[in-house]
Amino acid sequence: MTTNPKRRGRIRNSIIAGALTLVLVAGGGAVWAADRFLIEHVEISDVSAYEADSQDTSATDAADGTDAGLP
Prior knowledge:
- By secondary structure, this protein is mainly alpha-helical.
- It has helices spanning 5-38, 47-64.
């Protein structure tokens, strides 16, 4: 029993397209999961309070004569 060469090529192309789709979906899911669960993201809810606290700390260190910002 022989198959038509055009049919064989169509089946091969379908398998390749399906495998590529599967790899792209799995890769996208892996990138999303890594970004969601492995990479730490900085979250500041109140930027004004953060800046005020940062400025207060700088002013206090300068008044004390310490160099907290230097290693």
